[in-house]
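Protocol step 4 of 5: obtain the predicted structure for the target chain.
Materials: sequence only (see below). No template structures provided, no constraints applied. The aim of this step is simply to have a reference model before the mutagenesis design in step 5. Sequence pasted as it appears in the construct record:
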Amino acid sequence: QPQLVQSGGGVVQPGGSLRLSCATSGFTLDYYVITWFRQAPGKEREAISCINNQDGSTDYADSVKSRFTASRDNDENTVYLQMNSLKPEDTAVYYCAADWAGPRGCVDFGDLRRYDYRGQGTQVTVSS
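Step 4 output (structure tokens):
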């Protein structure tokens, strides 16, 4: 049974950093993309980062580009989201999600309908 188990998150001051983890099992991560998305109260869900585990390529939403970095630990089948220079508007529940990469990889990673599996979510709060 495919599973994505998240960890990390918490409360951090503006300008601080956090790292989220998404540990995967039950499927071969090499053939999947892992996308991070978030949802803040009263706002629509936003896809912010995608890593294509076929080739290691990544893509990011403009709102997080140059601040957030997705990466993978091959030995642990875990994907990470390193978040730097955090802002209050980054406050949200963060989720990781997996989809078969196929030929499209991270193209249209913002289409949330494509994801088969999702983590349980973790709260990130950026506040002074």
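Step 4 remarks: The longest strand covers residues 92-100. The mean pLDDT is 96.
Proceed to step 5.
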